[in-house]
Amino acid sequence: MKLKLDEQGHAVLQDGKPVYVHDDGKEVAFDAPATVATITRLNSEARTHREGKEAAEKALKAFEGIEDGAAAKKALEIVANLDQKKLVDAGEIEKVKAEIGKAYQAQLEEVSTKAQAFEKQLYDEKIGGAFARSKLIAEKLAIPADLVQARFGQAFKIEDGKTVAYDAQGNKVFSRARPGELADFDEALETLVEQYPYRDHILKASGANGGGAPAGNGGNPGKKTLNRAAFDQLDPAGKAAHVRSGGAVID
Fold it and tell me: Domain DUF6651 spans what residues (predicted)?
């Protein structure tokens, strides 16, 4: 990427940050302090991983010389049962273990079901709310938020309480303005829209209809028009939402 210069050869600033032009022509204000902070954080994480690796290697030294891990585990189980035989027969111990296992599995399944329900509620609120409040959708896209979510919603996930976007290749979408940091919702959505092969059909027209511009709405801007290819890209919920909103489909 190259530093953007004005006519006098001075660096162009945006919010006090130098503007760089990427190879694809996109201009991004480079946040140097944030980049330095990211590098510092990554160095700290690397040190933590290295120390953890060294600690694990030290702990494994106690098992040096043991080649058959399964046999060693079986031997430990036999010794444990022999010690407990002073109280009850080894066969009874296995029955007790089985009953405990069943109770634990039932509790685990109940907790898992509740966790899945909570995760869905969190996703609907965090991701669905982000689409509904998106400034990018309101200002630049020609289809309503529910249709945008129907097409791009599966690209967003919640990880460690944060919204993370993935592109079509399964890679996380990172910020161009804040190198090393994940893109925020609107920046990630903008990247996904740029990569969408039918983006010209969902972007708002910049002027009168011309060559290559999406078909107009016939003087009725309240209704959204999609061509057949773009409509077929939507999932069933998205198609239904488009029809309910009065949208049209052209072949």
Answer: 112-213
